[in-house]
Amino acid sequence: MTSATTRAVLDANVYVRASVEENDVAREWTMRLGLSVRGHAPDVVWPELTNALRNLVTGGVIARDDALAAIELVRRLPVELHPGREIADHALDAALRHGLTAYDATYLVLAEALGATLVTFDTDFVGVYDRLELLT
Fold first, then answer.
1. Residue pair 114/59 in contact by the 8 Å Cβ criterion
2. Torsion region of 118: left, alpha or beta (phi above 0 gives left; psi -120 to 50 gives alpha)
3. Using CA atoms in the order 41, 56, 64, 24, what is the torsion angle rounded to 10 degrees?
4. 7-56 pLDDT, tens per residue?
5. d(CA 93, CA 122)
6. How far apart are CA 55 and CA 59, in angstroms?
7. Residue 124's domain spans which residues?
């Protein structure tokens, strides 16, 4: 394994699209974790991931077993989790300043604190952060 060269905060939507939709761009980012990318996430990633999978199950898009498999797949990825309580005050300010949800602001504030690339499918971050990797 080579040393990680890029710090990245991956939004929960990247994990969902990589594990459930098998989106090529999302999968590429997750496959680079631990190799050329050092992955980071706020601990809110788990409830967000679980909620997205719940919506897919209740919407009839995937089966419960598929959602559980996605959770296990993401669980195995080498991502350093950061407690939201340590950045909650900054996340509140960022949410108010940029009109983001508190959840999204947590990803933003973590990326800013780490000087990391923020990887997401969420267009709400456009124009908010200069190290944004907006996936399509």
1. no
2. beta
3. -60
4. 999 999 999 999 998 899 999 999 999 999 999 999 999 999 999 999 99
5. 19
6. 6
7. 6-129
What pairing do the DSSP bridges indicate for beta strands 37-42 and 6-10?
parallel
> What is the count of structural domains for the chain?
1
- Beta-bridge mates of residue 38: 7
In a domain, 61, yes or no: yes
> Is residue 50 in a domain?
yes
Q: What residues form DSSP beta bridges with 120?
A: 134
Question: In this structure, what CATH number is given to the domain that contains residue 99?
Answer: 3.40.50.1010
Give strand pairing partners of 119: 10, 133
Residue 102 lies in a domain: yes
